[in-house]
Specification:
Strand 3 and strand 4 form a beta hairpin. Strands 1, 2, 5, 6, 7, 8 and 9 form a seven-stranded mixed sheet that branches. This protein is an alpha+beta fold and 230 residues long. It has six helices and nine strands. Among the domains are: 35-116, wza like domain (wza like fold); 137-196, no CATH class. The protein is rod-shaped.
């Protein structure tokens, strides 16, 4: 009986080690962003989710949640505390900082932060323009913001332009292997550009045929003229 107990304890210990290793590996994979030194840049924005009750009695709760634009100095303007520098932080370290900043005003503040990057969408979309989106958004999330593609939009032509250079030629193909904008390598300030489909009408085809026949006729006329002069 003692041997069976030892054997069962040994099996349970091995299972515990395996499960712990799997959980640890998952956490590391999910928290790669934690090791980034900076996720916020001037001109971008960030989203704050805030939960708590205002500390002082007799006053209503203040909603800190929302989207905040990062100014040219790298600051955002927050209720109660004013300007707070965010450049040089990632979402985790900034959340820790804001918890300390808001502690004098709230009982137990909980803060979650997500960066928002600037993306410009142009081409045959219903609402092309500049948008702020999460780096975790998918291509379809971005196209939905732009109102979706029009009927003449060539989805296979969607490319990414950065500093006047094409950095991703076929964005749609890239998303078959990666889910988010961050996974595919899209950065703040990038342009997502699509081209319209090329439709060749019957009239255009006949015009090309007539042009080709004219070239052939001219060539035959030149040959006949050369033979005549020999």
């Amino acid at each position: 009986m003692a041997d069976n107990l030892k054997r069962n304890l040994g099996v349970e210990f091995i299972l515990l080690v395996i499960i712990s290793s799997m959980l640890f590996g998952t956490l590391i994979a999910q928290d790669k962003t934690y090791y980034k030194k900076n996720e916020f840049f001037p001109g971008d924005a960030l989203s704050i989710d805030f939960i708590d009750v205002y500390k002082q009695q007799g006053r209503s709760s203040i909603n800190i949640s929302g989207e905040y634009t990062i100014d040219s100095r790298g600051y955002i303007m927050l209720p109660l505390v004013g300007a707070v520098k965010v450049v040089g932080f990632n979402r985790y370290t900034l959340a820790e900082k804001l918890v300390e900043v808001f502690k004098p005003y709230f009982t137990e503040p909980y803060i979650a932060i997500a960066p928002l990057i600037r993306i410009t969408i142009s081409g045959p979309f219903y609402k092309p323009g500049a948008y702020r989106v999460s780096p975790q958004a998918s291509l379809w999330d971005v196209l939905e913001l732009a109102g979706g593609p029009q009927g003449n939009c060539d989805l296979n032509s969607i490319s990414v332009i950065r500093n006047d250079k094409v950095v991703i030629e076929n964005l749609l193909a890239g998303f078959e292997k990666a889910y988010s904008l961050e996974d595919i390598g899209i950065q703040s300030g990038d342009q997502i550009v699509a081209k319209p489909k090329r439709h060749i009408s019957v009239r255009v085809i006949f015009d090309y045929i007539r042009f080709g026949m004219s070239i052939v006729s001219l060539y035959l006329l030149i040959l006949r003229w050369e033979n005549y002069n020999k």
